[in-house]
Each structure stands twice: as C-alpha cells, then as structure tokens.
Write a structure and sequence with these properties.
Helix content of chain B: over 70%
Number of strands of chain B: 4
Shape of chain B: globular
Oligomer: heterodimer
Largest sheet of chain B: 2 strands, antiparallel
Strand content of chain B: under 5%
Shape of chain A: globular
Strand content of chain A: 5-15%
Distance between the termini of chain B: 52 Å
Strand order of the largest sheet of chain A: 1-2
Distance between the termini of chain A: 20 Å
Number of strands of chain A: 8
Largest interface: A-B, 62 and 75 residues
Chain lengths: ~375, ~350
C-alpha cells in the first residue's frame, strides 16, 4: 500500500467511524426532546423514562463524536499538511462556525443532562431543543466543506496558487446546501429507523409494553418523515450534480456514452473496459428527466474524459444503487406504516409490521455508508 | 489594529480559557489517579461530579483553537502537524482515551472491576495529555521546529525531545493539577474533603513554582529568545508581577481556607502565566521562522474569520455564563427545586434511572 492510499484509507476509516456516531448523536436529541415534550403534555411516565434513556445515549455518542471529531480536525493537518497549507485559508470558514455550534450543543447538553432539578421545566425542554438545532447546524457546516470539495468556489487560481479568496462564497458553494440538507435528513432517517428497529426487537422479545410502543412511535415518525422528505432533497442534489458535475453523474449512473434522452439504470454492473453497464433495468429517458426535468436533455457520459481519470466506476455505481434502493424501500415502508396508523389501530399490534421493521431498520445506515463511499 | 494580531488575540483567549477550564479537568483526572487515604471514594465521586456537566464544553476550546489556526495561520498549523506529529498524536490518543473512558465509566452499569478499569484509563490519559500539550508549547518556543519544503529538518523526534519542551510539559501538568485542586475545594461542603484538596493545592502549587523556576533557568540555555522576551517590554513585567501577586494571594487564601478567593486567584495566576508566555513568544507562532504576520492568510480572510467568531461569541458567551452559573455557583445546594412530577415514577414501572439527579 503506498503512502497516499494509506493516508486516504485512514481518513476514510476515521470518517466512516465518525459518521455513525455523529449521525446518532445528531438524531437522538430530536427524539429525546420530542419524548420530553410528550411527557410534559401528557404526564405519561413512559415518555419521561424514554427521554432519560435517549439523553444517556446522546451523552455517550456526543462524547465519542467530540473526541473523534478532534482527531479528524488534527488529521487534516497530520495527513494533508500541504493541502491544508493552501486550502485551509479557502475552506477554513465553516470550521470555526462548527466549533460554535459544537459549543452550544455541549453547553445545553450539559444543562439538559444534569440540570433536571436545577432549571425550570420549560427551560429544560428549551435546552433539549437547542441541542437538537446545534446538532443540525454542525452537520450543515461540516457538510458545506464536503460540498466545496465537490464544487470548489470562492477563489481564483493564479499561477498555480489560490488568489482572491472569499471564504463565505467558498462556504456557500453550490453543492453545499443541497448536500447539507441531504445529510441531515439521512442522519434522521438512519438513526430513526435503527432506533425503531431496536425497540421493535425488544417489543417482540418482552411483549407489548408502553415504553417500547412510545419509543417506536417517536423514532418511526422521525425516520419516516425524514425519508419521505429525502425524496425531494435527493432530487435537488441530483439536479445540482447533473448541472455542476456531469462526470460524477455519469459515474454514479454508469453512463459511458454521451446521449440525449438517456435512460435511467436500476441495478446493473458497469464494465469499464467494454464501456457498458450490463444487466440493468433501463427506464427510457429516465435519467434526462431526473437530472434536468427534461425529456430529451443531454447527459454527458464518461467518454468525455480519458479513462485514466475515471473513478472506480463499478464501486461508485453499485454503492449509489444501494443507497437509492435502501432509501426507496424505507420510503415505501414509511408510507405503509403511515397507512396502517391511519386505520386507527396501534401500529404495535401488527406483529408482522414490527417484524418487518426490525428487518429493514439497518437499511438507513447501509444507505448512509454506501452514499459516503463514492 | 492589525487583523493578524486580532486573530492571534482571539486564539490566545481560547488558549487561556482552555487552560483554566479544560486544564483543570485534566488536573482532576490526575488527582483521580493519586486518590488515597480514607476518603478515596469520596474524592473520586467529587471529581466525577465536578467535571461531569462541563468537561465537553471545556474541551471544545481546543477544537476552536485548532480550527482558527488552520484557517488563519495555515503554514504554522502545517509545521506543527509535521514536525511535532509525535506529541500531537499522543495528545490525540490521550483525548480519545480520556473522553471515551470517562463516559464508559460513568454509564457502565455492569461489574465494578470493569468500571475501575475504565477509571484507570481515564486518570492515566488525563495525566499524560497535559504533558504532551506542554511539550508542544515548549517545542514551538525554541528553535527546533524547522520546516524545509514540507520536510522537518529535525525529524520527528529531535524537534521536541529536548530538555526545554519536556520541562514545560511537566510545568503544565503541575499547574493544571494545582488549578484543579484549588477548584475542587469549592465543589464540596464536606470540610474533610475540602481539606484534602487544600493540601494538594498547596503541595502542587509549590511543585509548580519549583518547575517554573527550572523552566526559567533552562530557558537561559535553550530558549534565550523566550527569556529575553520575558524581560523585554514593561508590560510583560506587569503580567509577571500580576502572576506573582496572584500566586501569593492564592497561597494565602488556601492557607486560611478562603476557598472562593483561592479559586479566583489560582485561575488568575495560571491565566497570567499563559499570557506572559504568549507576550514573550510574540510575534512568533512557531519559532524560529513563522510569525503571526508571515504565516497569516490574506487580510480579507482573517476579517471574515473574525466576523464569524464575533457572531459565534454573541451566542457562546451568554450560554457559557449560564452553564457556569447553573453548575459552578459557590455553595449551591443540589436539591433546589425538584421537578415534583419525576417523583410519580414508581420502581414497578422499571424506571429506576429516570430523573437521575436526586
């Protein structure tokens, strides 16, 4: 393994590790605040117990997320000193802002956890809400950096050096906001379904009980709403990628040839040497419609670049398909759950639904990691 | 005023607050390691209770410092990352082990032995991290960090393995221990526990003075620039005199058991020491080459960062004051106003850990 690959793997591993903790750490505060709010309005002790349990989980994950985040911020310098020396000035802006979001999260999490009997009830609930918002903001800021790596803006290259740098422009790069929204919703989806799945499993084991029922109710609501909104957000990201990063779209979709009215491939395995994606279900004109909302839009293919500059098309395409597949399945599941709930019978009475929930619950995380790899 | 100086001042403020708050948390971990006597468990519980609500917030000052450095003074960050990679790696290892073992110990409900094991990791890593933080500070104060075209001329070891950085490492550990012991006297109403930590504060304060003297002597051999800086301008003298007065006040207050006064004086003493070092180091970030002027990003970037920090501070400062007011007021009593509805829970509902604080 050469040094570059070693450094990339280390960074990738750190991020893949950090993303799991950060995701749960961002989502649990929302669920914990909802649980406390339900307790304050219904007086049902199951909600209070739930808020406490989720608060504990939040603490552990926030602590591990904070320390693994520290490692990442140092790793930027330890592994990529040259990149940071030049790019640090351009895309440094979101990091201090994230630092402040982190501060408010830590402060109000401290108040939430240890202030049950030191602050008034309304303020306690407000603290939980502030923790939730700060978690979302720190996700947004850090994803803006990733957005910049995809669509670098806010500087000019003059004689091989960065010049005319505008950090705020760089921060608000075109890919940034759509990606950030996508990431926040992904976090809610993954953690919501995983939590609902865990409580579903517990419910099957220990029989119907109020605690697991209310937990499933809140977690499934968070995950279900997030995955449905994710559909809209995914569309925004797709159109941004189609317009700004045609080569990325081509690799994601296994699109080797430039064509108008390109079809959308579902599944399939790209064969880079034969320049063809085989075994896919093709929906005529689908890709043009999704990418540009036009029936006959021109989709650039990988043939626009020399093969030596291609990413590993096979891995990228397959991971992307896994992400979209998991997302779609969870959306269907959320709709089914909503329909069952509509029929005014407690969801938890449907044993088969709960069993299915346990089965699909890890898919949010599968989608998250699969979406991260490319 | 020059924008580089403003950003450097913001970083200094972060460093001072990190030393006063985060440093004391490391010091508390050190005392956890050497807990002894009949009140061993009482001391451990007091330490855990004192740092529980605040340590994560305190830790973030370091993150802020790092991100300000890599966006504002990227070449200096890059030089530290390369030449001092070894101590930086050990700091990170310490931070990860300290943070995770702390929560694992606090929330592990299984066997006592496992909990003790996490406690050991927590206290050992808390004690080692300040050592390496001090080593980094010492290393950037002498002329050993020399970068040439991305390569450290002194390799990965000689850039920091040197008497001066090592003694600065010991100095920071002893100062953090002193600070922490002074704070812990205010955290309890039990006179016996107060006395335990008073004696420790006096002892570690005395040790830190000896180490400070050793640092000054060594500076004559290895860090002349810093030593000259310390006796350069009149205002550095003022800061040094202030630190000395604060030290005397702190010792007197500890001696006469006026703990609230001792806490403030000890914090002032350590804060002024950090400020004194930074004035002696000015304008360098990493000696001998990188200053806050020649390693700064273009001025418009620094201005943008400062705007961001100002916006952040508007939210941060009131929140922080609130946090400290809630948890660190003098003589606060724990059972102030229990939310009565928590009491409705009965053990039959499997809710033994709801409302955990009373």
């Amino acid at each position: 393994m050469d040094n570059l690959l070693a450094a990339r793997s280390q960074m990738g591993m750190s991020l893949a590790f950090h993303i799991i903790f950060a995701t749960i750490g961002v989502s649990l505060p929302l669920m914990m605040t909802i649980a406390e709010w339900r307790w304050r309005s219904t007086d049902d002790p199951a909600y209070l117990l739930l808020a406490n349990r989720w608060a504990k989980g939040t603490t552990i994950l926030f602590a591990v997320g904070a320390v693994s985040g520290t490692v990442l911020s140092f790793e930027l310098g330890l592994l990529w000193p040259w990149f940071m020396q030049y790019a640090g000035a351009v895309i440094g802006m979101p990091f201090p802002l994230e630092g402040f979001a982190f501060f408010t999260e830590a402060i109000f999490l401290g108040i939430y956890l240890y202030g049950w009997n030191l602050v008034p009830g309304w303020f306690h609930l407000l603290s939980g809400f502030i923790v939730t918002i700060s978690g979302v903001l720190s996700t947004v800021f850090v994803t803006l950096v990733n957005g910049w790596m995809n669509t670098p803006t806010g500087f000019d290259m003059v004689a091989g050096k960065f010049a005319n740098i505008h950090p705020f422009v760089a921060m608000l790069n075109p890919a940034g906001i759509p990606e950030a929204v996508h990431m926040v919703l992904a976090a809610y989806t993954a953690a919501g379904f995983a939590t609902a799945g865990i409580h579903g499993w517990l419910l099957l084991r220990r029989g119907r009980n109020r605690f697991d029922e209310v937990a499933i109710g809140i977690a499934l609501l968070v995950g279900g709403v997030a995955v449905l909104v994710q559909g809209v957000s995914g569309d925004a990201v797709a159109r941004m990628v189609a317009a700004r990063q045609p080569m990325k779209l081509a690799s994601l979709e296994g699109q080797f040839h430039t064509e108008t009215g390109a079809s959308l491939r579902i599944g399939g395995i790209p064969f880079p040497d034969e320049r063809e994606t085989k075994y896919a279900i093709e929906i005529p004109h689908g890709l043009s419609l999704l990418g540009f909302h036009k029936y006959n839009a021109l989709i650039k293919g990988l043939d626009q670049e020399s093969q030596s500059d291609w990413p590993n098309v096979r891995i990228v395409h397959i991971c992307f398909q896994i992400m979209v597949g998991c997302g779609s399945l969870l959306s269907l599941f959320a709709l089914a759950g909503g329909w069952l709930a509509w029929r005014k019978r407690p969801l938890t009475k449907h044993t088969r639904f709960i069993k299915a929930l346990v089965l699909v619950s890890p898919l949010g995380f599968v989608a998250l990691e699969a979406g991260w790899i490319p | 005023m020059n924008v580089s100086v403003v950003l450097a001042a913001i970083m200094l403020i972060s460093l001072v607050i990190y030393s006063l708050l985060g440093g004391a948390d490391y010091g508390a971990g050190f005392w956890d390691l050497v807990c002894s006597g009949p009140r061993k468990q009482g001391q451990r519980d007091l330490i855990a209770k004192a740092i529980q609500p605040v340590w994560e917030t305190n830790h973030i000052w370091l993150i802020l410092l790092v991100v300000l450095m890599f966006s504002g003074f990227a070449p200096a960050f890059s030089a530290i990352s390369v030449a001092l990679a070894a101590p930086v790696f050990l700091i990170l290892l310490g931070i990860v082990l300290r943070g995770s073992s702390y929560v694992f110990r606090a929330y592990f409900t299984g066997g006592v032995r496992t909990q003790l094991y996490w406690g050991k990791i927590f206290s050992i890593s808390s004690s080692l991290t300040p050592l390496f933080l001090g080593i980094v500070i010492g290393a950037i104060s002498i002329d050993n960090v020399r970068m040439n075209d991305g390569i450290s001329e002194n390799g990965f070891l000689r850039a920091w393995f040197h008497p001066f950085p090592l003694v600065v490492g010991v100095l920071s550990l002893s100062l953090f221990a002193y600070l922490s012991a002074s704070y812990l006297t205010v955290e309890t109403d039990d006179p016996a526990l107060q006395n335990d930590f008073r004696n420790r504060a006096l002892f570690s304060g005395f040790v830190s003075m000896l180490v400070a003297f050793a640092t000054y002597v060594l500076a004559g051999n290895f860090a002349l620039e810093i030593r000259n800086g310390l006796s350069r301008a009149p205002y550095v003298w003022l800061v040094e005199a202030g630190a000395a007065i604060a030290a005397l006040v702190a010792f007197q207050a500890l001696w006469s058991r006026s703990y609230s006064r001792a806490r403030i004086a000890a914090a002032a003493q350590v804060g002024l020491i950090v400020i004194g070092w930074s004035l002696a180091q000015y304008p360098y970030l990493v000696r001998p080459k990188l200053t806050i002027f020649n390693s700064a990003s273009p001025p418009n970037i620094l201005v943008d960062i400062e705007i961001a920090v100002a916006l952040g501070a508007v939210i941060l400062i009131p929140s922080l004051v609130l946090l400290l007011l809630i948890f660190k007021r003098d003589g606060k009593s724990i059972s102030a106003s229990v939310d009565k509805r928590c009491l409705k829970l009965s053990p039959a509902e499997n809710s033994y850990d709801a409302c955990p604080n009373f």
